[in-house]
Design brief:
mainly beta; 7-stranded mixed sheet
Length: about 120
């Protein structure tokens, strides 16, 4: 499965961006998907996840209420709508995929076997 992230850019604080992760490959439609981000000098951290079979979504506390993860089955993409962006949201954003994500481990980057290349989001103050 190949993942391709897009949609990053430069935006002012309070603005919005929409990231998209396109999945391709024979088993990609069966993947649960997540977004992570990595700011300069920091560890890669969990942002949000979408569980395919239940349609459930999960968010890091830092983005809950501002970000929305959604899946477009027709396009086989997972999008991250980011509103009310803050300078601390500046990071490279990565999409990740795995079949049958567990709620217990979905925030752990080590459990994901497929990653997109990352897209840079810069929020200016």
């Amino acid at each position: 499965v190949q993942l391709q992230a897009s949609g990053g850019g430069l935006v002012q604080a309070g603005g919005s961006l929409r990231l998209s992760c396109a999945a391709s490959g024979r088993t990609s439609s069966g993947y649960d998907m997540a977004w992570f981000r990595q700011a300069p000098g920091k560890e890669r951290e969990f942002v949000a996840a979408f569980i395919r079979h239940s349609g459930s979504t999960y968010y890091a506390d830092s983005v809950r209420g501002r970000f929305t993860i959604s899946r477009d089955n027709a396009k086989n993409t997972v999008d991250l709508q980011m509103n009310s962006l803050k300078p601390e949201d500046t990071a490279v954003y990565y999409c990740a995929g795995k079949s049958n994500i567990s709620r217990l481990t979905m925030t752990l980057k080590g459990v994901y076997r497929n990653w997109g290349q990352g897209t840079l989001v810069t929020v200016s103050s």
